[in-house]
Amino acid sequence: MNTLMDVLHHRPGWVEVKDEGEWDFYWCDVSWLRENFDHTYMDEHVRISHFRNHYELTRKNYMVKNLKRFRKQLEREAGKLEAAKCDFFPKTFEMPCEYHLFVEEFRKNPGITWIMKPVARSQGKGIFLFRRLKDIMDWKKDTRSSDDQKDDIPVESYVAQRYIENPYLIGGRKFDLRVYVLVMSYMPLRAWLYRDGFARFSNTRFTLNSIDDQYVHLTNVAVQKTSPDYHPKKGCKWMLQRFRQYLASKHGPEAVETLFSDMDNIFIRSLQSVQKVIISDKHCFELYGYDILIDQDLKPWLLEVNASPSLTASSQEDYELKTSLLEDTLHVVDMEARLTGREKRVGGFDLMWNDGPVSREDGAHDLSGMGNFVTNTHLGCVNDRKKQLRQLFRSLQGQKKTPN
Amino acid sequence: MTLTVLRSTGQGSWERRILKSLNSMCTELSIPLARKRPVGEQKELLNKWNEMGTDEPVLDLSLFRPVYAPKDFLEVLINLRNPNYENGDSHSFRTHLGLIQVPLKVKDIPELKEFFVELGLTAGQLGVDDSTQVPPELFENEHVRIGQKVLSEQDSAAAQQYIRQGSPTALRAELWALILNISSQPEDILYYEQLKTNVIQHDLLVDSLIYKDVKLTASNDDYYFVFEDYLYQVLLCFSRDTSVLGHFAYSSASPPKSYIRGKLGLEEYAVFYPPNGVIPFHGFSMYVAPLCFLYHEPSKLYQIFREMYVRFFFRLHSISSHPSGIVSLCLLFETLLQTYLPQLFYHLREIGAQPLRISFKWMVRAFSGYLATDQLLLLWDRILGYNSLEILAVLAAAVFAFRAVNLMEVTSLAAAEAVLADLSTLKVMPLLQIFLFATVT
Q1: What ipTM was predicted for this assembly?
Q2: pTM value?
Q3: What positions belong to coiled-coil segments (chain B) (predicted)?
């Protein structure tokens, strides 16, 4: 079920070209980008689906480095309280260069579980859990510096991260959330949040007893598909609307508002932390897949950001979600030049950040009172995108006809 | 039409048939109806209590057939006749062209409008007036405030009245508990633990039926699969709960009996089988699944389900003359359709697609698994509020009315089924309101 091809082929007025020099729009691979971006001339109107150095956000070791640096800066400029809002990623150490710092932290917290993740691989490959230093002694031997590994295919580089041992469970199962954020530019920062997304469930019951059983801990669909318990019919996913309703019926609307507002905070701060590092080329936009884990105290944690979230559909519902997501992405990219640029909502996307916080239409106040940004976001809320798009395009047409 | 007549003609023979089916499965597979578990097995089950869904079943489940499916039950209902009924009795009934041939009294639309007056167009509703376009100050905020007041005063009657206009998501679990008079006392928790002990110590043949049903229905559902383990915990205990036998006092059904080997027919050697007297059918676990959305503590979930069963759900699979019994619901559905959508009704009948054949499964399951969960919960709010299942029949008719245009164009039962296959996008309250209050009758 190739959602991207279907959406592109169905877009009125769009034609697929095979010739390298002729395209106006390219949904490219990161590998193509790496090899060709620097020597490809692009006209003003041309659009491409990645930023040149997106890995500053999407490779685990760089993201951590950028976040740590941003946090320090915030602490200097605005104090400890403000900096604490960046504490949404579990303590992480780059390996092997931060091995000694890691050991220090490890010894301060005996008995906790850590997770080792390869920096550049996806779909849950190469990940393992450990509790004893013995398990990772090999890392000490690898003394190669990580600086000269920028973006070649490197010798495996890992991060060691504190494992969240008290994840929120539903039906006794662990899950994580996949959320979509569309960044149209970094300077200034313009980012949109998609209303739909999903919760991905682990196929087996959560227990800390079997840290060797990667099926229990990794909620990635790709890993789940290989689990002996996996039944393809199940899909193991809940749409975010369902998840939001479930939480509301269990914890009440205020707790849910706080949680979702904390998630907005994660998206915005993570983007701010790489804002000055990412080359903000006006031809570039990027659709990120954020992976968020909720713990039992309803605190959200950032696991990672994906530059190329999977666009393969695992079910009919998934197909509809992803095709709508892509259609709306193309609406926001607006090759057809229909939008005025002042829109706060396009289909399922809500403008989350526009060089500053974006207020909701109704001017609603922040419920948590914690000083989180009051954002124009509706994650997990009703997505009546078709209706909204109809109204939007009709009014845009109307505006075009009447001269100002 | 009295209870006794239905009992002897319908329910009695139906019960005999189910029991025969169960007994023959038992004989074919040489599996006892009940056996005590060896200690090792008991220990293992206790360890795995919270994750029974992951267990590989001891027996090959493919050997088990559900004892019956809703469509078998429908066939029985279709063949119900009242031997006391004379053809000259009721003119209107003589022209009844539906499948049900039992002349029970059912409400017409004017009576339904009166009965469901709170669903009218002038009153606020959750499921209608809380949609995104409607400012919450208009209805929702005040309704939530009243709900909180009702809860703080623990007024069960007020709660029942209140919930006719729908329950706010955050208050629903408590409101339902209040209306059903469930409060988790220590003795309730103890009772549940005792049932759990029964499950650990004894294995029943129906356990395999339950296991199979959960695997086939709820576990395959995109949304309820997460609650698989809770379903076993509830249903296995449920089948051992002899307090459920109490509901047979007001049901026309009687619990199936089994006799100790060699003592067939001797009453002093009769036991109810299963202990709660309820043999699960295909889809039974769907009565429990939506409740998992609201209750997470096993003994509370259990109590809520049990109460819902003995108040409402049992009527959906036993033959009686009660206005909320499945026979009345079927008749109500058919009558509504034939009276208010005659063109559609005749058309479907002509092409061999009697509407009841399609809507029966919705009603038997109280729409669980067919509607989106939030819509289903709004519907069950009204079941509790009106203490009646008639709304199921009205909704079924409203669904047909809503899709009438497409249905008029189909030419086969299969095509009609296809038009009505997916109800997951339906908004229940607007449909009901339009059908009851906004259609010219």
Answers
A1: 0.74
A2: 0.81
A3: none
